[in-house]
Design a protein that fits this description.
Layout (H helix, E strand, L loop, with lengths): L1 H13 L3 H22 L7 H15 L9 H26 L6 H24 L3 H12 L4 H8 L3 H21 L2
Helix pairs in contact: 1-2, 2-3, 2-4, 3-4, 6-7, 6-8, 7-8
């Protein structure tokens, strides 16, 4: 009974009947949602997105439906191909994004790296004269504005800008010379 009703709605849709097409898509949505839920029991969060992809494929490929054939095998074939595509994408994604077994170990590694970087930057900054080091510390590391740094150091706004620029060039040169 369902097959015959869906087939008649599909034929009406192919002939341009919008009401038939709307009704067809509503019934097909329920049918395919159940189909996808059964097959994607381990990935229930994928069902609705996959249903939408399948409905779009049905819409785009509706011209391939042969009028004398049953409609449900055609629908299930499209849904099956979309499901296979989804599972392939998912497996590729999971292969590229291996989960960390021990997040604490990785976080500790990155904290240690950050500490070493801060220590190295501190050593490099200490080699700069105060008129370059202080503007960099205040504006780049502490986040002060140029005006705030000028008020704090007693330098002019222009001097802060020039000394930040010169100090950054000096740091870049030191960094390039590091082994």
């Amino acid at each position: 009974m369902m097959e015959q009703e869906l087939r008649m709605l599909m034929l009406g849709a192919l002939d341009g009947d919008e009401k038939s097409y709307r009704c067809f898509l509503q019934q097909v949505s329920s049918l395919l949602r159940a189909y996808l839920r059964r097959r994607l029991a381990r990935a229930p969060d994928e069902v609705e997105d996959l249903l939408q992809e399948t409905l779009m494929a049905i819409h785009v490929q509706r011209h391939t439906y042969r009028r004398n054939d049953p409609v449900t095998p055609w629908l299930y074939a499209i849904a099956r191909y979309k499901m296979i595509d989804c599972l392939r994408r998912r497996s590729r994604h999971e292969a590229l994004n291996d989960p960390f077994d021990d997040e604490a170990e990785w976080l500790a590694f990155f904290d240690e790296e950050a500490s070493e970087s801060k220590r190295d930057l501190g050593k490099m900054l200490d080699t700069l004269p105060a008129h370059q080091r202080l503007p960099i510390q205040h504006t780049k590391l502490e986040g002060m504005s140029v005006i705030e740094a000028a008020a704090l150091t007693g330098m002019s706004v222009a001097a802060i800008k020039v000394n930040v620029h010169r100090g950054m060039k000096a740091l870049a040169k030191m960094w390039k010379e590091e082994p």
